[in-house]
Design brief:
Strand content of chain B: 5-15%
Distance between the termini of chain B: 31 Å
Shape of chain A: globular
Largest interface: A-B, 21 and 14 residues
Number of strands of chain B: 4
Helix content of chain B: 10-25%
Largest sheet of chain B: 2 strands, antiparallel
Oligomer: heterodimer
Radius of gyration of chain A: 15 Å
Number of strands of chain A: 0
């Protein structure tokens, strides 16, 4: 069956719900989201739908401070990479097209941006132990 | 990492960039915009919106404007409550200022109502 591009809110909902299903099943990311941050998924998923609808369709719905939310979490250097790979995998399973590619591109930028910034802030334990 | 607004924006402030930012990272001064480096997600959407090419990723800011990296950081705190996420009409002489380079001395940091 040929895949469609991301076309509307319902597609974004499918993307976000499938992706965070994978996140919760992931040993590392599941720990950060569920055990540490104790994310309320009923609130978080609609928020992430708004985030991606804003990025892909400029709906203006997302109001949040994405980077700041991550600062207190026990994230390690490779975690944003895991997050990105799961996102890319989800997109490739479900969609194909311009918006789908753009979503992967932006996710990659966010992952590397957040990684570099947290590293600059000295947030990674593994970095600190390797410097000693 | 974050994107940085540099010199060409001063006295131009076209605001097209702020309207496309997905995370509302732009802050507004009287005649200049800055990007809050802790809000920017490096998506690149704003760069092509700027008619005077004022926006750069922080590792690609031209050397002569490198001080704008810390300026964006400082002014985004100062203008913390001046969030801008829509286009506003530019001032009448914006197009004239667009022709001028190195305008740092003309930057106004304080809003007249403060």
């Amino acid at each position: 069956m040929s895949k469609n591009d991301i076309r509307n809110d319902n597609d974004i909902k499918i993307l976000v719900h499938t992706f965070y299903g994978k996140v919760q099943d992931d040993e590392r990311l599941g720990f950060i989201f569920n055990d540490f941050a104790r994310v309320d998924w009923e609130k978080h998923l609609p928020n992430m739908v708004d985030f991606w609808s804003n990025l892909l369709f400029q709906t203006g719905r997302y109001k949040g401070r994405p980077f700041r939310q991550h600062i207190p979490l026990p994230i390690e250097k490779e975690d944003f990479g895991r997050w990105f790979l799961l996102f890319e995998e989800t997109i490739n399973e479900l969609f194909a097209g311009e918006k789908a590619s753009y979503a992967v591109e932006v996710a990659g930028k966010i992952a590397s941006s957040f990684t570099i910034r947290m590293q600059q802030m000295g947030k990674f334990q593994t970095d600190m132990s390797s410097e000693k | 990492m974050a994107y940085v607004v540099t010199d060409p924006c001063i006295k131009c402030k076209y605001t097209n960039c702020a309207a496309v930012c997905p995370v509302d990272a732009f802050r507004e001064g009287p005649d200049f915009l800055v990007i809050d480096p802790l809000e920017c997600i490096d998506c690149d959407a704003c760069v092509s919106e700027c008619p005077v090419d004022a926006i750069y990723p922080d590792d690609e800011v031209p050397e002569k404007w490198e001080d704008y990296i810390s300026l964006n950081e400082r002014l985004s705190e100062k203008w913390e409550n001046r969030l801008i996420n829509e286009t506003k009409p530019e001032s009448g002489d914006a197009d004239k200022w667009a022709e001028i380079e190195n305008k740092r001395e003309h930057l106004t940091e304080n809003w007249s109502d403060e």
